Amino acid sequence: MAPTDEIAGLGPRTDRPRLNTAADLSRLKLTPTEGFVLSRIDGRASYDEICRISSLGREETLAILRKLKRAAVILGPNDTVVAPAPAHKPTRRSKSPSPERGHKTPPPVLVTDEMLRKAQEKSGDQAKPAGQEPGSLLERLDDGDPVAPADLIDGHDLPLETKRRIVRLYRRLRKLAPHELLGLAPDADKAAVKRAFAAASKELHPDRYYGKDLGSFRAKLAKIFTRVTESVQELEKARKGK
User: Fold this and answer.
1) Where are the beta strands (DSSP E) in the chain?
2) How far, CA to CA in Å, does 152 sit from each of 9, 147, 216?
3) Burial of 26 by CB count in 10 Å (0-12 exposed, 13-18 middle, 19+ buried)?
4) How would residue 114 be classed by pLDDT, with cut points 50, 70 and 90?
5) What angle do CA 16, 78, 57 make, to 5 degrees?
6) Class of domain 137-240
7) Of 51, 47, 48, 41, nearest in space to 19 by CA
8) Per-residue model confidence as pLDDT tens digits over 120-157
9) Is 220 helix (H, G, I), strand (E, B) or coil?
């Protein structure tokens, strides 16, 4: 394997990291950015793909991935599941039960969506159904126009209100200026654009709906996300042209 195929502190760039099923996410104090990167870990995306998805820039994303791996929150394909460290070490005054009294080591804590949600809540990044978060892109751009019942038949894994908002936005997608789509001022700086794209990615990126029955809404969401990506590029081009 060539040196360029290795990422320091992580391993081969094509490795697909997975969550450590013994890690207790409820004890982590994740920042919103770290929570976003962690939500991309599914055992299917490689390190390179995660860097592209995150929109944070390769170096910042890799720094977060290294931190998560050092904490044994994520594992490489060949890594062994590591049990969480005890919260407190026994002292001389403690009355810790001894193994001979029949006490057993607690089983590993399985990582669940609920645990990830709680970890994100602590960092102000509460996860809710797409389009239902206060201030989400779909909610913010919802014009409330009528939607025909026939347009809502499929997509059984999406909430009804989310489907309505997707249809409404899809109908006027090309009428929105890039800054309007992202909820920014026309002269927003690079950092603001990056934050807006990260929020939109978390809400609309196709990976969020892996394995879901979206029907015709999958194509609509893909086109919306593509337009969001184009809007970021257009804003960046305009900013550099000033």
Assistant:
1) 6-7, 11-12, 18-19, 74-75
2) 47, 8, 9
3) middle
4) low
5) 30
6) mainly alpha
7) 41
8) 454 444 444 454 454 689 999 999 999 999 999 999 98
9) helix
- Locate tokens 């990615």: which residue? 201
Which residue spans of the chain are classified as CATH 1.10.10?
A: 3-86+97-122
Question: Quick one: pLDDT at residue 50?
Answer: 87
Bridge partners of 75, per DSSP, are 18
SS3 call for 62:
helix
Q: Where in the chain is the domain with CATH 1.10.287?
A: 137-240
Q: Please choose, from the candidates 227, 212, 205, the residue with its C-alpha nearest in 3D space to the C-alpha of residue 37.
A: 205
Q: What is the largest CA-CA distance in the chain?
A: 74
Q: Are residues 120 and 126 in contact, defined by beta-carbon separation less than 8 angstroms?
A: yes
Q: What is the pTM of this model?
A: 0.48
Q: What stretches of 156-232 adopt beta strand conformation (E)?
A: none
Residue 28: pLDDT above 80? no
Q: Could you identify the residue written with the tokens 């979206």?
A: 214
- Contacts from 196-199 at CB under 8 Å and sequence distance 24+? 196/232, 197/55, 197/228, 197/229, 197/232, 198/33, 198/36, 198/54, 198/55, 198/56, 199/136, 199/137
Handedness of CA 208, 210, 214, 217 (dihedral sign): positive
The yes/no answer on whether domain 3-86+97-122 falls in CATH 1.10.10 is yes
